[in-house]
Predict the structure of DUF2550 domain-containing protein.
Amino acid sequence: MKITVVVVGLLVVLAVLAAWYGQRWIRMRRGGGVSVALRWRPDNPRSGWHLGLGRYEGDEFVWYRVWSLRTGPDRVFQRESMQIADRRDPSGSEAYAVPEGSTVLRCESETQEAIEIAMGPGALTGFLSWLESAPPGRRLPRAS
């Protein structure tokens, strides 16, 4: 009898988490999210890629990790302080951890740690357009 109650309780908790997570995912996708893989501390050989959805909210690029229970974004990047330091193709096993056809951008900021963002061609075009649409007078250094 006790085991049945515990099992039913666990199933209810799992069902609630699944419903909440599904609702979160749908809400993020409706907001115009793009599939993006993110890696912070890219100079650390142990840092790995994390899949998520990125969204543009004015002067902010917000990133939601796919497997997260947070209600808000996991990372927020300000357009005015973000600079592209390098651009490359995924190497080795990275190609399996990032969206298909991705380009990896290393982004640096005066206010945040360096990150690498991997995104497919369509998302990359949108990201670069968003980044370059900064107010007049802002110089945007780019890697070639």
